[in-house]
Amino acid sequence: MIDLHSHTWFSDGQLSPAQLISRAAGLGLTHLAITDHDSVAAHLTTAPGIVPEGLQLVTGVEISTLWENREIHIVGLIIDTSAPDLTSLLEHQQQKRRTRALNIGRQLERAGICGLASYLNTLPCEAVGRNHVADFLISAGHASSKQQAFAKHLGKRGRYHEPAHWCSIGEAVQAIRAAGGVAVIAHPDRYKLNKIKLKRLFEEFRDANGEAIEVSYSNLHPEKLLILASLCDSLGLWASVGSDFHSADTTWMDLGRIRRLPAQCAERALWYHPRWIQQYGAMTTQTTSVIDA
Ligand code: AMP
Ligand code: MN
Ligand code: MN
Ligand code: MN
What we know:
Layout: E1 2-3, H1 17-26, E2 31-33, H2 41-45, E3 56-58, E4 60-67, E5 70-77, H3 84-110, H4 116-121, H5 130-139, H6 146-154, E6 167-168, H7 169-178, E7 182-185, H8 195-207, E8 212-217, H9 222-234, E9 238-242, H10 263-266, H11 274-280, H12 285-288
Parallel strand pairs: 1-2, 2-3, 4-6, 7-8, 8-9
Antiparallel strand pairs: 4-5, 5-7
This protein binds adenosine monophosphate (AMP) and manganese (II) ion (3 copies).
């Protein structure tokens, strides 16, 4: 099994890299990409020795970008995690995250909700995000769930929404390519774009040297999976798969719990990309199957 999208506590995941790797190995994954939001700290701090035999760790990152005033997530896979352009882009993004968290904290204080900054200081994360703020709001009794924290407080229509000034798709793709990686549009149906806009997003991404889209991921409706598979095929993009695992609590989003790539794009799977083969070798059929969720 292959899972090319997951998070550790260096962004908004709950597990340490060692815990995540051990869970992946326990579930029988052959390849796991750690793709933290705007951070490669998990890769820089993980000693190769802790990855058990039979599991290949794939380097990765998930960069927040802005496209037509929407937040689009670009995953970079098979990256050199110390490439200078990428390092500098991620430092900027992390700074923007800190500033945004500070601004949300100020808004909360004006509403009489204090303590966000000190809560955030207790976390191991390098890239602070709204998920952490949502946890804080829940623990302080101001939201009953993550969903509610986003809907009422942190999302675009939320009371304490703070706009983020992320880099462009072009900048993210450029940094990923300069780091030797493959750029992938993460979870395309979560941006609520109609089919025409979605196609335009894919075309502009491809024009900016982006190469792949996530076709199969957690909680994706089977009909949407087929739409993405045919867009992937018709636009000549590569197909990625990833659970977007954050925590063991969300069992419907577990590592490797992703539908198989549909026939239309099965041959465009990312593990047939020359860059993958160069880095990890050619795959045998046995290791490419992804379980049906
Ligand atoms: P940020 O990185 O600060 O922009 O926050 C985005 C992250 O928040 C996503 O990667 C998800 O993990 C989480 N998230 C976004 N929207 C929701 C939601 N409606 N409910 C729960 N988590 C969400
Ligand atoms: Mn997240
Ligand atoms: Mn994402
Ligand atoms: Mn993610």
